[in-house]
């Protein structure tokens, strides 16, 4: 393979880096993580003129090289380490023409690392409306670089950029601000001690050491006489650096940039006033949330039903075409339903990300953050946590993925950890059947009934558990996060179709290939456990049941056999084995089996009970009647009574009974540590609460 030119895209958040990246690479892109951390890594390949190729890396958005967060640290680590495999041949700094001054701060820092640097001035389409004009040749000369004036939105200037990348070798790698002026005495000493090195680079290594010493111990040691002793000394030097850089930038822009104020219109200000209004702001936001909820909950149900039927059909057809046997059973009852269990989430994920991308792209999301941040921050969450929490009421999987837009890792992690408490739609079938069994069907007052109040209460409990545990996690998690917070207020824009489409496709792919493997593996394991048994009770189930019940119809007989098989399968034995553990919660071994098999997904509980009680799983009335008549073998009391029912409701409210969520949390946090903690914590909590409830009520 011919050598590819290595290009790093660098820039402040919201300057259009990803848009430029999408234009350069199209769908030739991959998303992963940087090794060992959960910062998203996007890379792709771009075809340049004359058959040359470039490898493009979209680095996380960063305001400066004085890193304080993990995301920014990624950028610095790569730029400071010539041996890093991502070290660029050429850096492309993407800037927004409307915020050129602030964006150039980062540009001058990169430039001073003496890496060939191209400056992209993006959003050129907004120049005329804002009355901005630029003297490009003069800016190129003053900044000692090559500039591409680009509009990612209109796909203009990208070819020019490709040409500049191709000829990167001719770009001078000269610094533009003299680091000696930041702290003359200190830098003078540095320069004398390391005459052959870029002192700015050395300086960054030293500051990185101060900032991240606790995180990364294998950093090269700073020579002792150059160690920065205190954080305040460091801050002072950094402030000095920022001042010097802005002096330089101001002086450049005074000559190269002209803004005609009168040309700017006031539409943005008027929109802002409504969208961040004390009443209308919230009103509009909740209306949008309602729409999103509707899409995930209701609109996705049509494609989801189709997918469900398609996989059932596929399973049936395969069964009828192939000769029967354990291998075909594995395919038709294990693998196909397992795959179906993955594909079925695609509509919800796609819908949610369609909305989120549009909200982000249009600039509206920043207003939401502004509105919600103050409230959410009290609980250790971010303004952007609202969307995942609301989406969680439909399904935790897209919700966990939606946390990707939360910049601070700590806030994102807390959101991921608490989202599974919200009442997702898979809990509903379980709730509904138990509520109708144990809660009296009577009215309280005129409108409400005990049953509907119970359901409402369960929703509140879920939300309360989420917010409450966020509050606790915020207190106990020791994670370094952004210690300064900038609310970006970008201008309003029509969303770019290409960005939205790529985002939706990429999120769906991430789910299918990232979490899908785990979901498939666990479904197969659970299938094996339910389809095989340790002794002849399982293998001879048919004969045993047939000889015991002589006057049953074929259908009833089949149901009895299925029930018998499940009872003597591995899962059946597991259910019996945990009976002593779940008995204090008011459950018997049959419910135990239901709990174990519904670890795949909560709604499986109802189907499993139907099988155990040997009734067809599509006859809801029959299941209910059968459950109602189930009595304890010794005491003769009904198994499903108020105490055990409430206990079961609370168990499902708190327990992490969803392997798909665990799989996606593993993917999003890039480790097994967090999903395992989540699983253990939620299960223990669920057990304790269900136990207390049963013991009080019984
Ligand atoms: P990133 O945060 O730097 O990756 O920026 P994005 O690529 O996500 O873009 C941020 C916003 O700017 C999005 O709403 C884009 O649609 C918008 N945007 C990107 N490029 C342009 C452009 O050339 N012109 C205009 N008007 N908007 C743009
Ligand atoms: Mg981006």
From TrEMBL:
Keyword Ribosomal protein in record: no
Locations listed in the record: Cell inner membrane; Cell membrane
Membrane topology: Multi-pass membrane protein
Membrane-spanning intervals of the chain: 279-297, 335-359, 413-439, 451-473, 510-530, 639-665, 677-697
Keywords for this protein: Cell membrane, GTP-binding, Ion transport, Iron, Iron transport, Magnesium, Membrane, Metal-binding, Nucleotide-binding, Transmembrane, Transmembrane helix, Transport
GO molecular function: ferrous iron transmembrane transporter activity; GTP binding; metal ion binding
Residues given in the record as GTP binding sites: 11-18, 36-40, 58-61, 122-125
Pfam families: FeoB_C (PF07664), FeoB_N (PF02421), Gate (PF07670)
Domain FeoB-type G residue range list: 4-171
Principal place of residence: membrane
Record's GO cellular component terms: plasma membrane
Binding site residues for Mg(2+) 2: 25-26
Residues holding Mg(2+) 1: 22
Family designation: Belongs to the TRAFAC class TrmE-Era-EngA-EngB-Septin-like GTPase superfamily. FeoB GTPase (TC 9.A.8) family.
Role description: Probable transporter of a GTP-driven Fe(2+) uptake system.
The name this protein goes by in its record: Ferrous iron transport protein B
Organism expressing this protein natively: Aquimarina amphilecti
Taxonomic lineage: Bacteria, Pseudomonadati, Bacteroidota, Flavobacteriia, Flavobacteriales
